[in-house]
Design brief:
The protein is α/β, with parallel strands linked by helices and 191 residues long. It has eight helices and six strands; from the N terminus they run H-E-E-H-H-E-H-E-H-H-E-E-H-H. The chain has a single domain, classed as Uracil-DNA glycosylase-like domain (Uracil-DNA Glycosylase, subunit E). Strand 5 and strand 6 form a beta hairpin. The radius of gyration is 15 Å and the shape is globular.
Amino acid sequence: MTWEELERAAKRCTRCALCETRTNPVFGVGVRDAEVMFVGEGPGENEDLQGEPFVGRGGQLLDVMLKIIDLDRTRNIYIANIVKCRPPKNRDPLGTEQEACIGWLRAQMDLLRPKIVVCLGRIAAQVLIKPDFKITSEHGKFFDVNGVSYTALYHPAALLRDPRKKPDTFVDLKSLQAKILELAPGTYGRS
């Protein structure tokens, strides 16, 4: 399946009830051969309206965070979510919704073949790294999952709610930058 076929199929998805309240499914954005992938939990209101991940206040903060380590969604990374449709009132996606949608993310990962996956927040980390992932104690640590290096950062929305977490996130970003230089140095060669 090509990227275009996958995106068309994902945008027509009716596997769970989230399709009934979405404005736009949010497939993903970025470079489709990137070696670094960022994964959030699901779209919020702004993302649902625009059909692109991380475009609200949290997305603006994410862009600033990425810029610190010379990453950019239009140049050298890919961004997606666990679920492609907005959960009502921005609640956490239910397990059944995650299960219904995870196949789309797995297919994106199969096409992308990232060397590094960065989970944005606890939910993404629990789905992709391990079910008992503790964001407060394990953020910034790297885990090997089937030969791919995974890590998690605090979700940008959590940083907006609690700015005291920003210094830890800066350290995590610099650690991520070092890991990219080790495993995916071509990421920085893209213009």
